[in-house]
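Q: What does the assembly look like in three dimensions?
Context provided by user:
Components: two
Sequences:
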Amino acid sequence: EAGVAQSPRYKIIEKRQSVAFWCNPISGHATLYWYQQILGQGPKLLIQFQNNGVVDDSQLPKDRFSAERLKGVDSTLKIQPAKLEDSAVYLCASSLVGAPYEQYFGPGTRLTVT
Amino acid sequence: QKEVEQDPGPLSVPEGAIVSLNCTYSNSAFQYFMWYRQYSRKGPELLMYTYSSGNKEDGRFTAQVDKSSKYISLFIRDSQPSDSATYLCAISPYDKVIFGPGTSLSVIP
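A: Here is the predicted structure of the complete assembly.
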């Protein structure tokens, strides 16, 4: 069974530029999560989708971050404009509905903002 | 008070040692308790999850939950160099997951 796919793996941009990340979850997993992981910290939830609806986006900086999951499968996370403090690893995870305790993660996208 | 706390380490042990990794949490309503392993430059990998109090064993790994003390532990028996990674504890109040900051473990051959 294929795991969670993410691209790109690495991205370097200048502050005030925009960037987008893509995620393809495990087949059949209706719940998709985007996390931000800053070096030395645990993942912090940015947004959670169930199918194509948002379940929780309380920690998403909505003035600069946006995410969508239009057909209930793939998802994109966008940052515009980027700030230096956005440098982090962006992780995508997926799970079956009602099973957040069994999430499977992709490899992450390492973003560096200069 | 943070919802989930872990000693960040780093923890360094000799090969073959028994490793004990610990977390404390603040909200007694949490029901599910998870341990993830994260290798450098990789995504977290689920090791195991437990529901409510008690022990759960999977090979060399044992997870233990004490809800009365709000304390969870992961024991690794016969530790191997391949166990060198960051270990994240996580808790779930059903609809989401909250991660601890992780403990960095090095197993020295």
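Follow-up: The CA atoms of residues 2 and 26 of chain A lie 7 Å apart.
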